[in-house]
Automatic annotation (TrEMBL):
Pfam families: NMO (PF03060)
GO molecular function: monooxygenase activity
SUPFAM superfamilies cross-referenced by the UniProt entry: Inosine monophosphate dehydrogenase (IMPDH) (SSF51412)
Protein name per UniProt: Nitronate monooxygenase
Gene3D superfamilies tied to this protein: Aldolase class I
EC code(s) of this entry: 1.13.12.-
Signal peptide: none
Keyword annotations of the record: Flavoprotein, FMN, Monooxygenase, Oxidoreductase
UniProt KW Oxidoreductase keyword: yes
Top-level class of the enzyme under EC nomenclature: oxidoreductase
UniProt cross-references to InterPro entries, sorted A to Z: Aldolase_TIM, NMO
Length: 311
């Protein structure tokens, strides 16, 4: 069994977090990750509601016991009830990512809940350190969904050298080899998302799972075009990595207004709707249950690390 700060602190068997993917990670997925020995997080996106958090928390708890809630920090000022509800459902962890969490960390700590922030630069690290978070996740640009521009391995090394906080890694990690690699570098665990996207527990259209299985690692694009088409006001510094499709081919990089993009966008069309996924998508070869994915990653990482220690 692999033991790290993450596994000891949160009482889990495998140092793996299930990413709080907006529109994909509900209670069934979070619960399945936790039941397998990791810790699954609900993806409480800007377009979700407090009632959604309450309902999905009940599902996650019934399946896996432990669960976390992931929130988009930049969107909280317009609806702090999302945070209040996240605290009220008593998760094992709350992640505050994409923005300065200083206004919220104290409130979460007062409820006895640890706070972890996903970061994309060294400057982000300094901001969340000052806010008093308990750990950070170095998320590289290989990650699916909204992310930064620096690759996972350079960013992870930079963050590990710069902080005494526990550091996890995210972006491009989809197998036990990836988990073993970042643990060997000094990370305390990983957050995975793309590796779980084809699992039957994910929320979303069936075509999304099919696209993930069919795509290769070179088939993603970093773009803000889906945010603009769906009127999602993400801060400009964070684009999203998605599987390229007919919509990105037609509109990515084209100077048009958001009304035009909205009229052209059809989320029900498999060749048009957004499927956020990272470069690890080339490692997803079937629609395997999330628990099987997590257990396999843990077992394979332990095997690879043992082989290194014995060699």
């Amino acid at each position: 069994m692999i033991t790290t700060w993450l596994s000891r602190e949160f009482g889990i068997e495998i140092p793996v977090l299930g990413a709080p993917m907006g529109g994909r990670a509900g209670g069934a997925l979070a619960g399945a990750v936790s039941a397998a020995g990791g810790l699954g997080l609900l993806g409480a996106a800007r377009y979700n509601t407090p009632e959604w958090i309450e309902a999905e928390a009940d599902v996650a708890r019934s399946i896996g016991g432990k669960f976390g809630v992931g929130l988009m920090t930049w969107s909280l000022p317009e609806n702090e009830l999302m945070l209040d509800t996240a605290i009220a459902v008593k998760p094992t962890m709350i992640t505050l990512s994409f923005g300065d969490p200083a206004a919220y960390v104290g409130r979460i700590h007062d409820a006895g809940i640890p706070v972890v922030s996903q970061i994309n630069t060294l400057e982000d690290l300094r901001i969340v350190e000052a806010a008093g978070v308990d750990a950070v996740i170095a998320q590289g640009g290989e990650a699916g969904g909204h992310t930064g521009h620096i690759g996972t391995l350079p960013l992870l090394q930079e963050i590990l050298e710069a902080t005494s906080l526990p550091v996890l890694a995210a972006g491009g990690i989809g197998t036990g080899r990836g988990l073993a690699a970042v643990l060997a570098a000094g990370a305390e665990g990983v957050m995975i998302g793309t590796a779980l996207l084809a699992s039957p527990e994910t929320v979303g259209p069936d075509y999304a799972r099919d696209r993930v299985v069919e795509a290769g690692s070179a088939d993603t694009v970093y773009t803000s075009v889906f945010d603009r088409a769906r009127s999602q006001p993400w801060p400009q510094r964070w684009g999203g990595r998605a599987i390229a499709n007919d919509f990105t081919a037609a509109w990515d990089g084209v100077d048009v207004d958001e009304d035009t993009l909205a009229k052209a966008y059809d989320p029900s069309d498999p060749n048009n709707g957004v499927v956020y996924a990272g470069e690890a998508v080339g490692l997803v070869h079937g629609t395997h249950p999330a628990g099987d994915v997590v257990r396999r990653i843990g077992a394979d990482a332990e095997r690879h690390l043992s082989a290194v220690r014995l060699s």
